[in-house]
Design goal:
Largest sheet: 4 strands, antiparallel
Structural class: alpha+beta
CATH class of one domain: Alpha Beta
Helix content: 55-70%
Radius of gyration: 56 Å
Number of strands: 9
CATH architecture of one domain: 2-Layer Sandwich
CATH superfamily of one domain: Band 7 domain
Strand content: 15-25%
Distance between the termini: 175 Å
């Protein structure tokens, strides 16, 4: 008897446990009966279902992010670009989401990326690369609107699409970089040639100014020297006129000094020569 009661209690507990399920705030729940959707509007909390007949599947209702591999698009100017983007999305209709993807998130992501690619491709095809970069906000708004409308059939809301990076393909990038290097090199060569020309012009002007200044200085020096020599001559003439004997005496001493400057100097003259006029004891002026 006791064993039957125990089994009865265990069976009741098993039925009760199989009848209860909890839905969290961040979850969607669907109740199936024999594979068909019975209900999908459960709120967070404790709920009941028919034991052993119905089963529950839960899906994340939070904002999800999918990062796409870079995609190649063609702009209106026929330029290839690689666009790296990500998508923010969430499940809006869990029953429709399940019917479209069988609840497979990987399948849902693949279909969502395909949906987002099309409006992105259209946006790039209609604009130049410069226009896409300059008007990125308008591009994103257009892409999100078109992608959200298309993703509604999956039971998904597209919240946001963001372009992370826009690159040129490797082969195009290398060509662009080579052209940019050549252009920068040409600009550098032009600037260098302009600088050399300006340098030569400055040096030439400086040399001309030096020549002019040196010529003027030499002219001033010659003039000053001439004036000094004239003044010296005037002074000498005045002194000679006032004291001719003293002037003659000092000139003779200067001549003696110059003649006997060297230790081995030898001068052969007549002792009665005027050169020795002031070497006598009584010859100096008084």
């Amino acid at each position: 008897m006791k064993i039957a009661v125990i089994f009865g209690l265990l069976a009741a507990l098993l039925v009760l446990l199989n009848s209860l399920f909890i839905v969290k705030e961040q979850e969607h729940a669907i109740v199936f009966q024999f594979g068909a959707v019975q209900r999908d509007d459960y709120k967070a909390g404790l709920h009941f279902k028919m034991p052993f007949v119905q089963n529950v599947r839960k899906f994340d209702n939070r904002l999800l992010t999918v990062d796409s591999e870079p995609e190649r698009y063609l702009t209106s100017e026929r330029k290839d670009v690689l666009v790296d983007f990500y998508v923010k999305w969430r499940i809006s209709d869990v029953a429709e989401y399940y019917q479209a993807t069988t609840g497979d998130e990987l399948l849902a992501v693949q279909r969502l990326i395909s949906i987002v690619r099309e409006p992105l491709r259209q946006a790039f095809n209609e604009r130049t690369l410069q226009a896409v970069v300059a008007d990125r906000g308008t591009v994103i708004t257009q892409v999100v609107r078109n992608a959200d409308n298309a993703a509604a059939s999956l039971g998904i809301d597209v919240i946001d699409v963001r372009i992370i990076r826009i690159d040129l393909p490797d082969e195009v990038s290398e060509s662009v970089f080579r052209r940019m290097r050549a252009e920068r090199q040409q600009v550098a060569n032009d600037l260098r040639a302009t600088g050399q020309e300006a340098g030569e012009r400055i040096r030439s002007d400086a040399d001309r100014q030096v020549t002019v200044i040196r010529g003027e200085a030499q002219g001033d020096a010659s003039r000053i020297r001439g004036e000094g020599e004239a003044q010296a001559a005037t002074i000498f003439n005045t002194a000679y006129a006032g004291e001719p004997e003293f002037y003659e005496f000092t000139r003779s001493l200067e001549a003696y000094r110059e003649s006997f400057r060297g230790q081995d100097s030898v001068l052969v003259l007549d002792r009665n020569s005027d050169f020795f006029k002031f070497l006598g004891n009584d010859s100096a002026p008084r």
